[in-house]
Design brief:
Length: about 400
């Protein structure tokens, strides 16, 4: 790159993030990307807690790329560097759609390697310059080099710039539209369900249960054992009708499934609070005052079980519920009981919300308490084939359930 006294030479270079040297610059760049939302509209800001890799660090394999603008000339001898974009990606093995014609061949559920893209950001002053496209293509190259057969992303249904980039310029197809369901954490505890018993099962039983009953679910991760044994996993809980099993009589997964009650449900909890925090920005003074008033009333009169708006207008933590599922006519009731327990655990950890994500047509969705005003009923997943294996995954009808990995939330 050469420039004389009057010429300015500018080039954008995409390179791998250097954790030792780039941390502060990336955090500052990310702050600029999230700043300045639309006037009068609420926006969600992510606090990385000093770790730009926090959203992917717990994945089996991950990479972060940055776009760096290098400027030389204009009367200055020294080269000026500025980080103007970033992208994160991770790799894992997952179950191919249970409805795939590949399913059942060789007597096993088919799996494939997928790459997941998240955290794509471009500085507002450097958008419409092809930087986002450059970052995506470099990440896809890394996916291919590591034998990934598919790349996928998740974005809000009203994030049109993101949807246009991936579907119109990068060749992705809309794939799934799961629902993100959010429930606030109140000042009062939720009373345990009178007709349900909840059992905290050990990790080895949790792994066995998920592999036995959920391994054919779309996007089920092959490394479920690593997920359930991660320090961020707060436990796996099974709900059964009262009188069938309890903590003392729990016989282990194999015996439980061979003599399972008519209905049962399972849930695992992931501690996102120790990884990152969210913050809702753009609220008016009136909105903040009303929210605070509801919390004051809830704390003052907890026996009234008054719903209250949590502290969302500053950095707040959350727990993510995953692996929700079960069987039987009372499964919705048992899922609701599990969600009540999750609320109380989140309260003990000083979280402000509990979040989960489930398929649109999953029957258990009706049993998950949530607030419509905080939830998103159409999170858009887009997918692209990178290899020569089964290419028509995107064209298959969605299964009844989907496994949402908390490491990618």
């Amino acid at each position: 790159m050469v420039a004389d006294d009057d010429t300015v030479a500018v080039v954008v270079v995409v390179r791998e993030y250097n954790e030792k040297n780039d941390g502060d610059a990336v955090i500052n760049a990310e702050s600029r990307c999230d700043a300045g939302g639309t006037a009068g509209k609420l926006s969600l800001y992510t606090h990385l807690m000093g770790d730009p890799l926090c959203r992917v660090r717990n994945s089996p394999a991950y990479l972060m790329l940055i776009a760096e603008m290098k400027v030389l000339g204009g009367g200055e001898d020294k080269q000026r560097n500025e980080i103007v974009g970033m992208i994160r990606g991770c790799l894992k093995m997952v179950t191919l759609n249970g409805k795939s014609p590949e399913n059942g061949k060789h007597g096993r559920t088919p799996v494939t390697k997928v790459g997941y893209i998240l955290g794509l950001r471009v500085s507002p002053s450097h958008r419409r310059m092809g930087i986002g496209l450059k970052l995506v293509r470099r990440m896809e190259l890394w996916f291919r080099e590591n034998a990934a057969q598919f790349s996928y992303i998740a974005t809000e249904n009203d994030n049109f710039p993101s949807l246009n980039l991936f579907t119109l310029k990068c060749g992705y197809s809309k794939f799934r539209t799961p629902s993100i369901l959010v429930h606030p954490v109140f000042a009062h505890k939720i009373k345990p369900h009178k007709k349900a018993t909840i059992i905290h099962i050990p990790p080895k039983d949790a792994v066995s249960l998920y592999r036995t009953r959920f391994s054919a679910v779309d996007f089920f991760p092959s490394d479920i054992d690593a997920l359930l044994n991660n320090k961020l996993n707060l436990g796996t809980f099974v709900a059964v009708p009262r009188g069938s099993y309890d903590e003392i009589s729990w016989p282990g997964t194999a015996a439980f499934l061979s003599a399972a009650p008519e209905s049962w449900a399972v849930m695992s909890i992931w501690n996102c609070k120790d990884v990152f925090r969210f913050e809702v920005r753009g609220a008016s003074r009136l909105q903040k005052a009303v929210a605070k008033a509801t919390r004051v009333m809830d704390r003052a009169f907890p026996w009234l079980n008054l719903p209250s708006i949590p502290k969302l207008f500053g950095p707040f933590g959350l727990h993510f519920l995953y692996g929700l599922g079960g069987e039987g006519p009372k499964v919705k009731t048992l899922v609701k009981a599990l969600c009540g327990l999750a609320h109380n655990i989140a309260q003990d950890h000083r979280c402000e919300v509990v979040v989960t994500e489930v398929a649109q047509k999953d029957p258990i969705k009706l049993g998950i308490p949530h607030w419509e005003m905080l939830s998103c009923h159409e999170d858009v997943w887009c997918i692209k084939s990178l290899g020569e294996s089964f290419k028509d995954w995107a064209k298959l009808p969605p299964g009844e359930a989907i496994f949402v990995d908390p490491r990618e939330f």
